User: Fold this.
Amino acid sequence: MDDVKKIAKELLTSGKVDAVIGYIRYGNDKRTKPFIAQKPEEVENFVINKYILNNLAVYLTRKEVTKLGKIGIIAKGCDVKSIVALIQESQIKREDVYIIGVNCSGVAQDYDIEFSAETIAGKCLSCEVRTPKLFDITIGTIEDIPQGEDKKLKVIRQVEAMKPEERWDFFEEEFDKCIKCYACRQACPLCYCEQCIVDKSIPRWIESSATKRGNFSWNLIRAFHLSGRCIGCNECERVCPMDIPLSLLNRKMAMITKDDFNYVSGMDVNTPTLIGSFDLKDNEDFIE
Amino acid sequence: MENKNQDPKIIAFVCNWCTYTGADLAGTSRLKYQPNVRMIKLPCTGRIDPVFIIKAFEKGADGVLVSGCHPGDCHYNAGNFHARRRWIMFHKLLDYLGIDENRLHFSWVSASEGKKFVDVVNAFTNKVKAQGPFKKYEKINKEFVING
Assistant:
């Protein structure tokens, strides 16, 4: 934990970066919140623990942050995937960001709970990027992560086994909970559009009111716009106040792109994006 | 209900250069096909945003047909390749969400395939008729009252 303070302080003092985005303790030891340090003395409260849940990459495309200059960012392996995806999509430049990678041994599902095999975040169980894929410097050491059951994967398999009508009813019920707060969009590092399609009013493509129809269209289009792009940080699901299992959609789409195109988003800055490229041999069995 | 079953609403999103011209050829060749299809012409299949398909279902379509140039024939060189990649993911997502695959049909119809266009429309119309009205979507549509 002292490492992170030392590194951040040095970066700011030497002028290598103009600001460092990190986590500070918030309320109690089982809570953190994001903090943007612009002066060396501001890094004193930085922490690294099991509760650094936010994906800070979301700030890299925000104007308020980009105008600060070169940014140092503390990022877990999954967060680094979203930084890579942003570079792949030409939203940020590699040289504009200094990545302090965290060698990660899993984080908790949520704040205020003891970290254990039961409460480890689902995404950590199948994590392949415990050492970040891209970094300027890394901190921390990798320890064994407690092995729990991958409950979400089990649900995906259950949904897949249902009949189409049953799947519709299942998702209708889940989406019905949506209150259109767009927390999923705000927390997503890859939802960087200046104007989201749901905010367009002429023409109004997706009803912005929280009706069954509007909710269905919104959640469907959100999942589609993230297909082949979502890196699985699972922030959307964590921040959802209505506990809609959004990872069922995002993860399923990631599974499809892995199977069909052998493509995993956010692994390599030099790979073209899935949706921005094509292959002459793409599958067309379903097209007559 | 019985009547509605026999008269499904089908929206077709077609590309200007191939399928629309193919449909024109079907017309000038005096070929007959079932009249349930409402065609919407777009410059290219690459312009067919999946949100159009959702909108069609929201507005009460029982089926959606999407058609354009064969791969390699695109007027803009690569529009249909990009579209194809999107459709692969989109049709799988719809299937996962429980929209029956039989309500959404993709096809390639070139400008010279008037006969194929007729066959595609007839076959798809029969398939949608067999499915009956899209009751599941009607149900979520009903709740919407502001300007629906």
